[in-house]
Amino acid sequence: MYPLISIWTILPGNKTKVLDALKQLAATVEETQAGTLAYLVHTPNMSQASLPTPYGDTVVFFEIYKDKAAFDEHVASKAFVAFVADYGSLFLSTEKGGPYNSVEFLTHHAGYIRPGIL
User: Comparing 18-22, 48-52, 66-70, which segment has the lowest mean pLDDT?
Assistant: First the structure.
């Protein structure tokens, strides 16, 4: 198992467009990438108290891959590469021009995901 959390910051005024595109990306990933075991896209719930207070225009990805090879396949996939090409400019960018994101790779120790949760 190869789990991670990644956070991307949406530039002001682009949240609806980004979330619509991410719905399509998630559907394509589910259909075409069997090694992607979970691909969940969230935004902060600003009506709940969180510490520290998050920036509201962020996207939080929780992803689980079968292994690192499946993760590498996702990042190199036509769907992900096209998403970054088409929508990458709607996110905070790095000096090299790609979307800035923080990634935290995780080690699973316990817990579960109930079947049929989504």
Answer: 48-52
- 2-46+54-105: CATH topology is Alpha-Beta Plaits (3.30.70)
DSSP letters for 9-65? EBPTT-HHHHHHHHHHHHHHHHHH-TTEEEEEEE---TTS--SSPPPSSEEEEEEEE
Q: Is 8 in a helix, a strand, or coil?
A: strand
pLDDT in tens, 64-110: 999 999 999 999 999 999 999 999 999 999 888 789 999 999 999 99
Rounded Cα distance, 97 and 81, in Å: 14
